[in-house]
């Protein structure tokens, strides 16, 4: 395994080299062989954007079919495959890698480290991803198509699926391995490679949230790997972990899956919280309110996330005592999350606010994520959840926290750091257009799904009764609009890279972490080879 | 100690945690089964503990019997389609299976109840569902279910539908 000291042995005199494109190779080999955290961060970001587009196209396909009742464009089998792959690709291909991309770019710069602790391992963590993504997409072309089991891959349906299921299982294994290696790298970097004087409690909150997320990944991803391994041996090697006739139990799968699955929710959300905790203080021109309580709240969320998993399975027939335990534990999550929301609001209180695009996305996050949190509280209540289980109310809930939470945080982060990364400023007017279009269309898609869910429309079904037609039409039109709005996003980013105005070292007045105060814009290829002293 | 060595040490520890958590997923399997035994839930393969109680002759409960074979070449039926019992009274019904295949087949019966919550009051002392059933080619077998309806059965339940479904035991359990 390569370490930084080792890796930089051949990089002699780059301290004064401000050439952004300097690297050991030119052309495509630069990207394949790179061990530079900035290059790998860029790869992660582009990869996740591609997967976001693929998953988004699938979502548009789903909404197209649901535009009218009856079956128009696809058979229900293919519809199920689309919902399954949309979920898997968005969770593992888009949202998780985008924050790893942020981590790669930002963590070394924010803590004053020259690079990630294991630079070559970092390269491998990334290059595992395209192979996993290819396996996922290939499963569509297998006999029987992609698995149509839902992204949760519940047994016993998974045992009956065709070859596509095996490809998906291997893809999940590879994605998990990539995440675990990446997390080990991130934890090691944060704990061992901080600049002198950068104590843990002086780290920017983005670094803190990633440290805790990485621990969650190391603890949770192997459990998912175990669950899909059991599915694999049930399918091919005669075990009966999840087969009732052989003494197994399909409900066992749900327990194992959600033991991973609930921490996964916070794996997705916490780095987003970190981004928001950088953006809001910068545009309020005030330090983050309650820094220490933010750190403790993040840790509390992470710990509680391991004891709430069965709130996803209230309807499996567990004892009432169990339902009560998981209900109260779930409600407990609202306390540290509330601490965070109030701290963000208090940060803005009496601040000198301006509303550039990153701040708009952060505020959008704050409103929408809190709304998603509230519907989560509603769903945590057992008798209501039993009514709402597997309806569009649940779909609306988790899209409010996943899209308006994680995705909006990612957009906020991209607009916030794009000037630093590329050295060029994005177009503020277009950025605001992107925000407002995304916000409006997002709510058009998902707010109305609350109504559909309350009226009893079940999720993951290609058809629906006539009475649900109106809101489904609204939702579908919103989906087409939101899809188009992301083409604008791509245009803004490409235009910024090619012809944006040159950005100053510190384009945001209130931003005060090391990458703004100590590094030029754009940062040189190798930064902090001599670590700064933090006072 | 230099940073490189410290990095390696930490990464080794984290890798051990990751491998341990992979093992933990498998440890959840026996853990889950033990929890089910301890709480007395999900006990389809174990006889219920029946406490001796007075027979409540003031009530009569109708037990409707149903049978299904899921993708199995078995003819499976109860000898009577319903019985009437008093709560607290020991009763017996019989089922018959015929293996239509020219090969031995192993199956496992899984019971279900309507209404669902009546299941915990339908206490089985003896049942063919407690074990795998292996039938020789063409074999016919009669199997009893001995049960007691718990007198604590809620007053609004006057009929319990008991349905057994046989699944073929393939995989490890079925290969003898």
What does this structure look like?
Chain A is built from 17 helices and two strands. With 535 residues, chain A is mainly α. Chain A has a two-stranded antiparallel ribbon. In chain A, α12 runs antiparallel to α14. Chain A is globular and about 65 Å long. The two termini of chain A are 33 Å apart. Chain B has 176 residues and is α+β, with helices and mostly antiparallel strands. In chain B, the strands form two sheets. A five-stranded mixed β-sheet of chain B has the order 3-1-9-5-7, with no helix packed on it. A four-stranded antiparallel β-sheet of chain B has the order 2-4-8-6, with no helix packed on it. Chain B is flat and about 85 Å long. The C terminus of chain B is likely disordered. The chains are: A mainly alpha (535), B alpha+beta (176). Chains A and B meet through α1, α7, α8 and α9 of A and α1, β5 and α2 of B.
Which secondary-structure class do the elements of chain A indicate?
A: mainly alpha
Unreliable sequence segments of chain A? 1-20
Largest interface: A-B, 47 and 40 residues
The radius of gyration of chain A is: 23 Å
Succession of helices and strands of chain A: HHHHHHHHHHHHHHEHHEH
Low-confidence stretches of chain B: 172-176
| Major β-sheet strand ordering of chain A | 1-2
- H/I helix tally of chain A: 17
Rounded to an integer in angstroms, the radius of gyration calculated over CA atoms of chain B is 23 Å
N- and C-termini, Cα separation of chain B: 58 Å
């Amino acid at each position: 395994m390569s370490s930084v000291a080792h890796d930089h042995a051949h990089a002699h005199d780059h301290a004064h080299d401000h050439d952004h494109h300097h690297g050991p190779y030119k052309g495509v080999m630069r990207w394949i062989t790179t061990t530079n955290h900035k290059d790998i961060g860029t790869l992660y970001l582009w990869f996740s954007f591609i997967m976001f587009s693929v998953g988004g196209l699938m979502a548009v396909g789903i909404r197209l079919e649901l535009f009218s009742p009856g079956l128009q464009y696809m058979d229900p089998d293919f519809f199920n495959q689309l919902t399954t792959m949309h979920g898997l690709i968005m969770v593992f291909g888009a949202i998780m890698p985008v924050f790893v991309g942020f981590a790669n770019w930002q963590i070394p710069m924010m803590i004053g480290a020259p690079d990630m602790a294991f630079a070559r391992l970092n390269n491998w963590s990334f290059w595992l991803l395209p192979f996993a993504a290819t396996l996922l997409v290939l499963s569509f072309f297998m006999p029987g198509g992609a698995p149509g089991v839902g992204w949760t891959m519940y047994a016993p349906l998974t045992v009956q699926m065709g070859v596509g299921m095996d490809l998906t299982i291997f893809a999940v294994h590879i994605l998990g391995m990539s995440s675990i290696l990446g997390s080990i790298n991130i934890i090691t970097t944060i704990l061992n490679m901080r600049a002198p004087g950068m104590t843990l409690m002086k780290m920017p909150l983005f670094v803190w949230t990633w440290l805790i997320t990485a621990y969650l990944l190391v603890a949770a991803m192997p459990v998912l790997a175990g669950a899909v391994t059991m599915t694999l041996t049930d399918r091919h090697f005669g075990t009966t972990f999840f087969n009732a006739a052989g003494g197994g139990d399909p409900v066992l799968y749900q327990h194992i899956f959600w033991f991973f699955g609930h921490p996964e929710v916070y794996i997705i959300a916490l780095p987003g919280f970190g981004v928001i905790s950088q953006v809001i203080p910068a545009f309020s021109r005030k330090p983050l309110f309650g820094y220490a309580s933010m750190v403790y709240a993040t840790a509390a969320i992470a710990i509680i996330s391991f004891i709430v998993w069965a709130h996803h399975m209230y309807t499996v027939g567990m004892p009432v005592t169990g339902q009560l335990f998981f209900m109260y534990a779930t409600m407990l999550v609202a306390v540290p999350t509330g601490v965070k929301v109030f701290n963000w609001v208090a940060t803005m209180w009496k601040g000198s606010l301006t509303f550039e695009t990153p701040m708009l996305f952060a505020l959008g996050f704050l409103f929408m994520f809190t709304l998603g949190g509230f519907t989560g509280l509603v769903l945590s209540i057992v008798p209501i959840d039993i009514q709402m289980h597997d309806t569009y109310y649940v779909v609306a809930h988790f899209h409010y926290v996943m899209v308006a939470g994680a995705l909006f945080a990612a957009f906020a982060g991209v607009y916030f750091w794009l000037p630093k990364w590329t050295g060029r400023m994005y177009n503020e007017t277009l950025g605001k257009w992107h925000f407002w279009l995304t916000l409006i269309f997002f709510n058009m898609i998902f707010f109305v799904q609350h109504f559909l869910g309350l009226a009893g429309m079940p999720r993951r079904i290609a058809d629906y009764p006539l009475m649900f037609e109106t809101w489904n039409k609204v939702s579908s039109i919103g989906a087409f609009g939101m899809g188009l709005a992301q083409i604008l996003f791509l245009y803004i980013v490409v235009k910024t890279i090619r012809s944006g105005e040159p950005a100053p070292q510190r384009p945001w007045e209130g931003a005060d972490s090391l990458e703004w105060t100590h590094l030029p814009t754009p940062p040189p290829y190798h930064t902090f080879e001599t670590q700064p002293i933090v006072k | 100690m230099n940073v490189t060595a410290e990095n390696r040490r930490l990464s080794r520890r984290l890798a051990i945690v990751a491998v341990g958590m992979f093992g933990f997923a498998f440890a959840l399997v026996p853990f889950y089964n033990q929890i089910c035994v301890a709480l007395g839930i999900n006990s389809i393969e174990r006889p219920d503990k029946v406490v001796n109680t007075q027979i409540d002759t003031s009530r009569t409960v109708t037990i409707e019997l149903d049978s299904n074979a899921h993708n199995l070449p078995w003819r499976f039926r109860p000898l009577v389609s319903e019985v009437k019992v008093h709560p607290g009274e020991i009763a017996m019904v019989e089922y018959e299976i015929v293996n239509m295949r020219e090969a031995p087949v192993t199956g496992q019966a899984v019971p279900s109840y309507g209404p669902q919550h009546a299941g915990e009051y339908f206490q089985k002392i003896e049942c063919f569902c407690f074990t795998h059933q292996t039938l020789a080619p063409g074999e016919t077998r009669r199997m009893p279910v001995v049960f007691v309806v718990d007198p604590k059965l809620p007053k609004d339940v006057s009929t319990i539908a008991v349905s057994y479904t046989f699944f073929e035991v393939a995989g490890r359990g079925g290969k003898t």
